[in-house]
From TrEMBL:
GO molecular function: pyridoxal phosphate binding; transaminase activity
NCBIfam families in UniProt: PRK07046.1 (NF005453)
Entries under SUPFAM superfamilies matching the protein: PLP-dependent transferases
Reported cofactor(s): pyridoxal 5'-phosphate
Superkingdom to which the source organism belongs: Bacteria
Organism name: Trebonia kvetii
UniProt lineage: Bacteria, Bacillati, Actinomycetota, Actinomycetes, Streptosporangiales
Coiled coil regions in record: none
Similarity comment: Belongs to the class-III pyridoxal-phosphate-dependent aminotransferase family.
Keywords carried by this UniProt record: Aminotransferase, Pyridoxal phosphate, Transferase
Name of this chain's protein: Aminotransferase class III-fold pyridoxal phosphate-dependent enzyme
Length: 457
């Protein structure tokens, strides 16, 4: 093996420029659609984060099925982004398509303010998978987290929550906080319209640092720790051995509730990290994937908390204090969840997805080793992500420091120009039940070329 090769920045800049030019040439209709959309779409996109796709404009989707997506320029892309987990079940899997068609078309009545029998089935299935017994619905993971935080504050009569530096839990005001360079908490740069400085609502520590957690919980004012059992929104940061047991012990000792946000870590298995690693949270939140692409979310509480919130006289969860969401738990999304959990994201499907992800991880690792590239890759069940740092990061701060926008843009455009869609903003690849080994091989070939060119080979 040759020596570890430093990236030549001039070469990288030239390669990025070349890939940007090919992207513009390869996707002219997407570009024209984007150019024409700014008159009435804020920022020219349906949601402003779509401006972050590399190359200056997003690809416009035409259709998507399984692990493939076609665009309006006529390309067929292998989709490792899968809607950043929203489409972990694959695009429009047949059981969900049928359930949605039946509910919307044959039976009719997508949203009526009335329950359907699917809701209790889904709640029982979520209880089986994640261990907490009582479930309720939202339309997004963000909202599931908001409601979990409210319940935690209500039940503990405490005001603060605690999160981990560089976490992401949706647009939940309390969570936009990081450990600053001097070790003190600061509002995350660029946050928009914060109602109050999050340092007044939130304590923050680095992941994998039990001493810091113990110190912050000792204030006695933390209602809940909201966490992903492994961080997935700043690369993948896996917990060190024994760390999650320490988190559980420390939260219990401090009278603080523990909320596992399994929205992304669901990739670890049919019951997310909670089941895969035998965790015992007080609440679980989830969204994105469980409706097979139909908007939905859910939060679950253990039986004791459920009893307490229902019998708390000062908590009017039926009216004034209800989070609401008129469409939450609507007939269409619970039908989709039932089909998705019952027939698509099954225990057997996870075994296959994890095996394909292991193949992806091994191939990327082999290329990096063969070429002595100082990057690392981490796998979490059906998800894997490489990071531009030789050792997998152990904290969010460390992982954030390894960000490299030029390399990111290069890798994303290189793969996209050759028929492979990666998750934007980082280098995550997710496997659906329809993702195959040959999809992985196609990625390995392109990844190998991208790295070779970067090294000037
Ligand atoms: N929790 C986690 C862990 C997430 O990664 C995300 C979104 N990436 C959310 C919650 C919020 O999901 P949504 O934007 O669908 O509400």
């Amino acid at each position: 093996m040759s020596l570890v090769t430093a990236i030549n920045r001039d070469r990288l800049a030239a390669l990025v420029k070349r890939e940007q030019d090919s992207y513009a040439a390869n996707f002219p209709r997407s570009r024209a659609a984007f150019d024409g959309a700014g008159e009435h779409l804020l920022g020219g996109v349906p949601m402003t984060w779509m401006r972050m796709w590399p190359g200056g404009f997003p690809v416009y989707q035409a259709a998507a099925r399984g692990a493939r997506l076609s665009d309006i320029d006529g390309h067929e892309l292998i989709d490792f982004c899968l809607g950043d987990t929203g489409a972990m079940a694959g695009h429009s899997p047949a059981p969900v398509t049928e359930a949605v068609a039946r509910r919307y078309t044959e039976l009719g009545g997508a949203t009526t303010m009335l329950p359907t029998e699917d809701a209790a089935w889904v709640a029982a299935e979520l209880a089986r998978r994640f261990g907490v017994s009582h479930w309720s619905f939202t339309l997004s993971a963000t909202d599931a987290n908001r409601w979990a935080i409210r319940v935690a504050r209500q039940l503990t009569r405490r005001t603060k929550i605690l999160v981990f530096s560089y976490c992401y839990h949706g647009s939940v005001d309390e969570t936009f906080i990081v450990v600053g360079p001097d070790g003190r908490p600061v509002s995350r740069a660029g946050n928009v319209g914060a109602p109050v400085d999050p340092v007044t609502t939130t304590r923050v520590v680095e992941f994998n640092d039990p001493a810091a957690l113990e110190r912050e919980l000792a204030h006695g004012d933390v209602a809940a720790v909201l966490m992903e059992p492994a961080l997935t929104n700043i690369g993948i940061v896996l917990p060190r051995d024994g760390y999650l047991a320490q988190v559980r012990e420390l939260t219990r000792a401090a009278g603080t509730l523990l909320i596992n946000d399994e929205t992304h870590t669901f990739s670890a298995g049919p019951g997310g990290c909670t089941r895969a690693w035998g965790l015992d949270p007080d609440m679980v939140t989830i969204g994105k994937s469980i409706g097979g692409g139909v908007p939905c979310g859910a939060y679950g509480l253990d039986a004791g908390l459920a009893e307490r919130i229902l019998s708390d006289d000062s908590a009017d969860i039926e009216d004034v204090g209800g989070v609401g969401g008129t469409l939450a738990g609507n007939a269409l999304s619970v039908a989709a969840m039932r089909a998705c959990l019952g027939s698509v994201l099954t225990d057997a499907a996870f075994a296959g997805m994890t095996e394909v992800a292991a193949g992806y991880t091994e191939s990327v690792r082999a290329v990096l080793a063969a070429k002595s590239v100082p990057w690392s890759i981490s796998q979490l069940g059906a998800r894997a992500e490489y990071r531009f740092t030789p050792e997998p990061p152990v904290t969010g701060g460390e992982s954030a420091a390894a960000a490299d926008v030029d390399l990111d843009e290069y890798m994303h455009l290189y793969t996209l120009n050759r028929g492979i869609l990666m998750t934007p903003f980082h280098n995550m690849a997710l496997m659906s039940p329809m993702t195959t080994k040959s999809d992985v091989d196609a990625h390995t070939a392109v990844f190998t070329e991208a790295v070779s060119e970067l090294l000037g080979e």
